[in-house]
Design brief:
heterodimer; A: 307 residues; B: 281 residues; mainly alpha
Amino acid sequence: MLYLVSRKVLLALFTVLVVIILSGFLIHVVPGDPVTTMMARSVTASPEAIAEIRQRLGLDLPVWRQVGLYVWRVFQGDLGTTVRGNEPVLTLLMQRLPNTFMLAVAGLVVALLIGIPLGFLAAVNRGRLADTAVMVVAVFGVSVPTFWLGLIMIQVFAVKLGLLPVAGSGWRNIILPALTLGLTHCALVARMTRSALVEVLGEDYIRTARARGLREHQVLLVHALRPALISIVTVVGLLFAYLLGGQVIVENVFSWNGIGRLAVQAMLERDYPMIQGFIVVFATSVVVVSTLIDVLYSFLDPRTRMQ
Amino acid sequence: MTDIVQRSRQDRSASLAILVGATIVAALVAIATFAPFLAPYDAMKMAAGPRLSAPSATHLFGTDEFGRDLFSRILLGARLSLGIGIAAVMSGLLVGALLGLIAAFSSRYVEIAVLRLIDVLYSFPDTLIALTLVAFLGPGMENATLAIAASLVPFYARVTYALSAGERAKPYVEAARLTGIGSTRLVRVHVMPNIGHSMIVMATIGFSSAILSAAGLSFLGLGVQPPSPEWGAILASGRNYITKAPWILIFPGLALCVTVLSFNLIGDSSRELFDPRRGRR
């Protein structure tokens, strides 16, 4: 057990390290000179200012030393400062991170609340009309672009019906973006629930439970759904990563004050230290959450502990 | 017995889904190819009609903020979406397949190194990988295509590796090895014909994700730039007219949905049909 957990943690550290190295490297794929590109959009770009930024980013050193220096600084908690405003990147990102997590969790809850019952319905009626219907809905669900669904939500609920605010960060503002994220991601949950449940329903202990004369709903809800739900926990980590990814666009649609909106703003302004910082913080969040879920899973399911 | 009945029924619905998907894709390809002849107006011409006019007989999908005909723009947009999709999938598949094959048929150390790197990248959503790459490469259609292609590489590399690792253990590979041929020839002559069809199925799965990424990037202003009639770019400008002209939001989004849906229908169902290990139980 301890071995399993430490292995997971080591793997997580490795992933974060690779991402930090890649992110330090990315600034060197910028065509032409990154500083000139960054300053092209700003009003005054004196040679002194350019030299100052070059020096600050360490762009005059050999590539491998720059990357090494970047990794070293990141491990000390220094993600650099923004090109515009010269503010510390880490502080800016950390201010917005709670907002991003709040929305991601809300979206996750919506996705699970819709996806699990749908998958359950499909698995119980496997091969019948309800199953086909749910799977068709699932294919439709993954085909709708998140940002378009968001715009349609705004058009219908905020503009036409005037029920909810268009943008902002209050509690009423979370409803539409959370629904948008949840609806576009519930298909994955439905599919996973279905296949996990179908697998469980083929197990011997289900037949035993039925043979003992238990009522069907008891067999389904107690004996089948519980182990199936445990295996759904494993996809929650993956789902969370995808939710966070989809959120980058959704935050921009709904002007939600999270790191995704900050990142896209930085991307449009070519604020490279900010973008690099976003990559590091995003990757760390994804890795931490999925590692936690992996560990949680091995506690929940005694079968994995045996191996 | 019931299993066989159920299976054939599922097979039939999967085949139907592929047929529907393929028909729509064929129609889209036709539209993309003949768009300039099909379009009633020049897609770039300003003031082809009154500004922001609602859908009518003269302007099927209405007009945008510059009085351009939306129907013509969406027809022409099919070219961009499909073009970016094809270019990104082809190059992503090529690089990914190469990486996967290298991992499967070279030394143990190379295998571990490549697999670890791919696993790290694979744990992040592909749209996000494309987004960050574009942030560094700079906006524009070529860079967006390149970034989307790169974002598909981890997926294709993993699939190719999984397929070839399965082949590696088979007797025919061992027999071929015993004749003394090199790895390159082994892959080209013996392995590729056996995994090629599965890789084509995988290629269709990448399409929908590539098209969605392209539209998302353009929507954020980091992909295809206006005035190009890319669907995501049209949606981005339509956002400002959400109250006055909702049709600018509705039609490009529907076009996007139909396109992505048709590729998903083909990809999902063919995976179900051709790969008995996944999906169906």
